[in-house]
Amino acid sequence: MKKTSLFRLAAVLMIGAVLFCFIGCGNRSDNNDRSLKSDESQNEAQDESDHEPQTGITRLNFVPAIGHYKVNTRQHYCFYIDTVKYWYEYRGEVSFMVDEDYDYSLLSSQSAMDFIKEVEAIPNDTTEADGPFALKIDMEYKDPDGTTHPVIRTMYGALPENWDTIVKLANELTMQRMEIPVSKKITVVDGDYLREYHHIQEDEYPHGVSLDSIIKELGITYEYLYDETLCFQNDHLDVWALIDNYTFDYLNMIDYVYFETTPAEVSTEGELKEYAEKHLDHITSTNDLSAVGRFQDYSFEIVRSDCFGTWAKEYGYDIIQYNDGSISLIIYGNESGCETQSYKDFQCYMDPSHKFIIVLPFQGGFAGHIVNTYNVVYDFFQQ
């Protein structure tokens, strides 16, 4: 917004306030002569407005790359304010507005007017060639004429010169709840960062490929990790799922997936024993249906594919079929009641000969995500 527009906005607000006082005093004497809206109609009108100010900020997404992911403390300093439900479906518990007691009048306050001015003063001429992602501010505001103005500022390599002022105003607009620090040190998302703050382990991405190169190829930035308006979209993958998919494709794991339509080949008990001795580091037990043992410190069970249904039924496994036709297993505990019953999930892979199905448990990882074992399974089949 130009300076003249801001002054005009401030003037209109001041004049409006004065007129309101005069009109309000005059109306007191003839309240009985005028019909008033019912409380119900007033509430409906308020609901329809969705707190949208007549002038000022109507939505604001603030993504500064100045914080680290930390367990059980504030994860980042990103926030969004949404008065017109532009991002309504993405709102989650990480929002500072989750308590629904936000003072929406702040969006048309002097702090809001100053914030608009400072944001529009940010240069918009940096690119990824200038360095890592530093800041994104995506907002809209209305001027006194009711015209909506979208403003997007994205910076790379450094934060703007007026950053101290922007932080001060952002803290005022968020009722001091975010406690955004005045820091110009940019948080860079690289391999070390994902290992330290997201606990990405070496076994979770292809051996021989650097995590830094994966981050660059997949475009994993601070914005991708923490922009709340991205994180709650249905097609947005968290960093673990993103790397999981990359590793799956890199190792061509589709060649080993067990689908419901995958044909089973007949095998003998002798072939099972021979296969187990070749592929397992240590065999724990064998029978006519399967062989149990360990490979690279993981528990494996090799099942004859033509006996898979019989084996699953005998040992209490339920066969799960996903939408893509792939198969996994689940086994439930002995507890009574659906709410307390425990269970374990198991992955299933088909040997290229189609004679044997490899079963191993899913591995739990950081923050409840599932750790892929693609490297281990790939090595198992390469023997």
Structure characterization notes:
By secondary structure, this protein is of the alpha+beta class. Helix content is 31%, strand content 20%. The strands form three sheets. It has a seven-stranded antiparallel beta sheet with strand order 5-6-7-11-10-9-8, with helices on both faces. The N and C termini lie far apart (66 Å). The N terminus is likely disordered.
Largest sheet: 7 strands, antiparallel
Mean model confidence by pLDDT: 83
Question: What would the principal axes of the Cα set say about the shape?
Answer: elongated
Cα-based radius of gyration, to the nearest Å: 30 Å
Helix-and-strand structural type: alpha+beta
What's the total helix number? 12
**Strand order, largest beta sheet:** 5-6-7-11-10-9-8
Q: SSE string, helix = H, strand = E?
A: HHEEHEEHHHHHHHEEEHEEEEEEH
Features:
disordered N terminus, single chain, 20% strand, seven-stranded antiparallel sheet, four-stranded antiparallel sheet, 12 helices, 383 residues
Short note summarizing the structure:
The protein is an alpha+beta fold and about 375 residues long. The chain has 12 helices and 13 strands.
Secondary-structure map:
Layout: H1 3-27, H2 39-49, E1 56-64, E2 79-82, H3 110-120, E3 133-142, E4 148-156, H4 163-173, H5 191-197, H6 211-218, H7 222-226, H8 228-231, H9 239-250, H10 269-279, E5 282-286, E6 290-295, E7 298-304, H11 308-314, E8 318-321, E9 327-332, E10 343-350, E11 356-361, E12 363-364, E13 370-371, H12 374-381
Antiparallel strand pairs: 1-2, 1-3, 3-4, 5-6, 6-7, 7-11, 8-9, 9-10, 10-11, 12-13
Helix pairs in contact: 1-3, 3-4
